[in-house]
Amino acid sequence: xxxxxxxxxxxxxxxxxKGARPPISVNSNLYLFAISCTTATDARPSYHVTxxxxxxxxxxxxxxxxxxxxxxxLFNADFNEANPNAGGxxxxxxxxSTDLIxxxxxxxxxxxxxxxxxxxxxxxxxxxxxxxxxxxxxxFGLNAVIALVT
Length: 150
Prior knowledge:
150 residues, mainly beta, five-stranded antiparallel β-sheet, two-stranded antiparallel sheet, 1 helix, flat, disordered N terminus, hydrolase, Glycosyl hydrolase family 32 N-terminal domain-containing protein
C-alpha cells in the first residue's frame, strides 16, 4: 500500500498557527510530524479541543448539523487539583466548529445531577454518544439530536 503524503505538510502548516516542522521520513511510506504548541505555556495542543480550566476526557464523535460540526466531551468543572479523588462529577460540554480546527464553546449540554424533562435525576453523566435522527425514527422530530448517556 502506498500513502500519498504530498499534501500532509501543507495541511499541518495550515492547522498550526506556529507552523509545522518539516516531516521526518522514517521510510518511503511512513512520515512523522510534530506540531508546535500555540499557547503561552506551550503545554496545550495547537488544534485539539481543550477546556480553558479543569479537565476533560472522552470526546464524543462529532456530528454535522445545520452549518456546524458539534461535539461533546466529558467535563468536570468541580475538579479539585489539591484532592483529585474528591471527584465532582462530569457532564457533557458542547463545542461547535465550521472547520474542525477552530472551536466555539457553547456551554454544558447535559448537566450533572439535574432532572430531565420527566423529572428523573440523571446523576453523574458519563460516556455515551449522540446521533442525528434524519428520518424521525424515534419520534422526536426530523433531525432531532438523540444523546445516549450512561
